[in-house]
Specification:
ten-stranded mixed sheet, 14 strands, four-stranded antiparallel sheet
């Protein structure tokens, strides 16, 4: 083992390549804090997280002023102990997104270090369940996209061997959502997966109405139909819905997922490795879901989630939304609609540090040594 001797944190802001809109928001930027941890043997592990448009400086501040001074000097291999100690240090601000995102950056960097020292890729070190995972695409399904373009994109993804496409719903009327979904289903046929995402925009009554309509088109899942903190309403909807209910991108702790699973409030979990605090809790959520015979299909961060979905047996699909193209030289290895887990040691993400330096935001950089 080797102690962590230095931590460097900075932030870049990544503008999405395509316009991204859903029923409640538009994604104008991806603030991306990036963290490097150096151990006494000279290995450097990289971690990162993200926000959609705001909050990034608060994450950098929490890392710089509170968490990184407590991380340097620790044995890098003691990942569970470090994660738990940092969580207790920030107990007054947990559970919540800012704290979870900051914890994730550290935890992901520690896992990168662990894999680099062992000369193993993350997907093997974290479980090694399978080397590939089927993809579904979200990039062509945003709410503002016209119906004919939805159809064209779904057909293109189907031709590439993708397992499915996700369509954003939440138009003012049920009839508008129905027309879009019918057009896509008519085009792709009965075997291609169509998934939908409402981004927490419905009331329970409206979600019930839309769920009945979704069943007409054999929709694979109904994602975030209701506000994520209303577990009781999700229990009622899941019991009544003819379509599987998926939740998780707006949950921030192992315990929140435990409540959803124990209460039967969902049938698919979508834990986001950044939003739940890192790889350490993500794996616990995945295995807890497995014990409930529930699939995990993580939200966003495909460049990292490809390794995690390949690490566990109950992750049937990976969401295709490129995030890191502007600051990496690696790309997701896709063959016939299947994403292949990186074989390189560590996370398998090749960072372009010149590009990162040129995009680094002034005043949001710090080095902590110990």
């Amino acid at each position: 083992m080797a102690q962590i001797v230095k931590a460097d944190v900075l932030m870049v802001d990544l503008v999405p390549k395509v316009t991204r809109t859903d029923a409640i928001q538009s994604f104008v930027s991806q603030e991306t804090p990036i963290l490097r941890l150096t151990d006494a043997d000279g290995h450097v592990g990289t971690g990162y997280c993200y926000t959609i448009g705001s909050g990034g400086p608060a994450i950098v501040s929490l890392l710089r002023d509170t968490l990184l001074p407590l991380t340097t000097g620790r044995e890098a291999e003691e990942i569970e102990a470090i994660w738990r100690d940092l969580l207790m240090t920030t107990h007054a601000t947990a559970v919540g997104p800012i704290t979870s995102l900051a914890l994730a950056a550290i935890d992901i960097a520690l896992w990168d270090l662990r894999c680099l020292r062992a000369d193993q890729p993350l997907w093997r070190m974290a479980g090694g369940a399978k080397p590939t995972v089927p993809l579904y695409s979200t990039e062509g399904g945003w709410l503002h996209i016209p119906t004919d373009a939805l159809v064209a994109d779904a057909l293109a993804m189907q031709a590439k061997g993708f397992a499915g496409s996700k369509i954003k719903i939440g138009k003012p009327t049920l009839a508008e959502d129905r027309a879009r979904l019918k057009a896509v289903r008519d085009a792709v046929g009965p075997t291609y997966q169509i998934l939908v995402d409402a981004n927490q925009s419905f009331t329970l009554a409206e979600a019930r109405r839309r769920a009945d309509m979704l069943a007409e088109y054999d929709i694979g899942w109904f994602e975030e139909p209701l506000p994520a903190d209303d577990v009781g309403a999700h229990v009622q909807l899941t019991a009544a819905s003819p379509v599987p209910i998926a939740v998780g991108e707006s949950l921030y702790s192992l315990s929140q997922f435990k409540d959803y699973l124990a209460m039967g409030a969902c049938t698919i979990v979508q834990a986001d490795v950044a939003r739940v605090g890192g790889i350490t809790p993500w794996l616990k959520i995945a295995h807890m879901a497995e014990a409930f015979n529930v699939a995990i299909c993580p939200h966003f961060l495909m460049e990292l989630h490809v390794s995690l979905t390949c690490a566990v047996p109950n992750a049937p699909m990976l969401e295709y939304i490129p995030q890191l193209d502007d600051i990496t030289t690696s790309r997701l290895d896709i063959q016939n609609g299947q994403a292949h887990a990186p074989s390189a040691p560590g996370l398998g993400i090749a960072w372009d540090w010149d590009a990162i330096a040129s995009r680094s935001i002034t005043g949001l950089h710090a080095t902590v040594e110990g």
